[in-house]
Specification:
The protein has 177 residues and is α+β, with helices and mostly antiparallel strands. Helix content is 41%, strand content 24%.
Length: 177
């Protein structure tokens, strides 16, 4: 059974997501999830985070897999840039909270939170799941008013970080005009 799930996971990770989830301009569905940052439990609320500024929400298939680990490392490296833009970053996958505690320290390098969406309820609300089995690799930038500013569906890690930073810079400069 484990081998079948592993093979299914490899297949899912190998294909790209052809559709992007919710459209730019749509209202982001509110949610709360159990999560972890720096190995410590937290309860993440999108509404609460948006009160502080924009949120970069990224979905990823499975903690401790190659591209998901690379993506976490890249988000961690860019943490100062996200902080400078006033943004909160959170990653969500179908992994359980125990896995997310470890992933938040080992791969997210204690820089941002990851949430446990084990029933993929949030991923489904964001049209970011593969048949309810895994989260798709999709990222969003959500403005403080809850409006989706950007969305990206890509099987590669780097474009998610680049697009999120580009969107935040454009949003921030647009607010100053």
């Amino acid at each position: 059974m484990k081998r079948t799930l592993a093979l299914a996971a490899c297949f899912v990770f190998a294909i790209g997501v052809a559709h992007a989830a919710l459209r730019v301009g749509a209202k982001a569905p509110d949610f709360q999830v159990d999560g972890a940052i720096a190995g410590k439990d937290l309860r993440f609320s999108l509404a609460e985070a948006l009160r502080k500024g924009p949120v970069v929400l990224y979905f990823y298939p499975k903690s401790f897999t190659s591209v998901c680990t690379e993506e976490a490392h890249l988000f961690a490296e860019a943490a100062p840039q996200f902080a400078a833009a006033g943004a909160t970053v959170i990653g969500l996958s179908g992994d359980d909270i125990a896995t997310q505690r470890k992933f938040s320290t080992m791969e997210c390098r204690d820089k941002f939170a990851v949430g446990a969406d084990s029933d993929l309820k949030v991923a489904k609300a964001y049209d970011a799941s593969y048949g309810g089995m895994f989260a798709a690799r999709i990222s969003y930038v959500v403005a403080p008013d809850g409006q989706i500013l950007s969305t990206l569906s890509s099987s590669e890690a780097e474009p998610h970080i680049a697009r999120a930073l580009e969107t935040l810079r454009a949003w921030k400069s647009g607010r100053k005009s």
